[in-house]
Write a structure and sequence with these properties.
The radius of gyration is 18 Å and the shape is globular. The N and C termini lie far apart (38 Å). A hairpin with a 5-residue loop joins strand 10 and strand 11. With 246 residues, it is α+β, with helices and mostly antiparallel strands. It has three helices and eleven strands, in the order βααββββββαββββ. The chain has helices at 24-41, 46-50, 174-190; strands at 5-10, 54-65, 74-81, 89-97, 102-114, 120-121, 152-159, 193-202, 212-219, 222-228, 234-244.
Length: 246
Amino acid sequence: MNKTYTESFQVRATDCDFERRMRLDALFIAMQEGGERHALSLGAGYDQMMARGLFFALARIHVSTFRAPRQNETVVHTTWPGEMNRFFCPRYHVFTLQDGTPLAAAGALWVMLDTKQRRIVSPQKVDLGFPDNSDLTAPIALPTRMPALKGEAPQVFSRAPQYSDFDVNGHVNNTKYIAWLCDALGFDALRGAYIGDLVAGYEKEIRGHDPLRVTLARNDDAFSFQIASDAGEKHFVAGGVLRPEV
């Protein structure tokens, strides 16, 4: 049984922003797809879980980027599941260059849901057959407290989910929330800087097409972000820090 999974990929132009850096939502896609390939090899891939009436959904994530990957660079991605508890299935990700130069690390908390009622199922009640990785050192702290909106004069936008936002689960894909965050930050904030540290929480899935209230607050290099319904029901919260480009 493979305790960890490692793959390499070349950063494509379509994954990059106007400064030829890999966009953060593209890094989230790499995490999602690499994690799925490892889960598949462990017998817990998407189709395998759906056959059991279950699927995984991202609940919380902490990402630290030391240096954004750049166009045409070859990136090495290593991922592995952490120790499960009553509610969460942790998964870690580490990104480096081929020479070992660190690029980014992430710790994610996934929940397992049943397909019919979309209720959380404790991973301790399901035989997932994941390896015992208690001997592996966590590369980053798992997310705990979720960020609240902080900052003066927050910007408020309206945004409705579109066709390309939805995935095979029929809800807005977790990577799209990150794209929305980067869109809200905009060119001026991300010119010469990138999101160096991010904590995010997926509060309630988005399945409809109604316009949503998107709020961004800034405090120097720190930011907080929220997606909510017009009634104030939170779907996504995030907070982080911008760092100068290295």
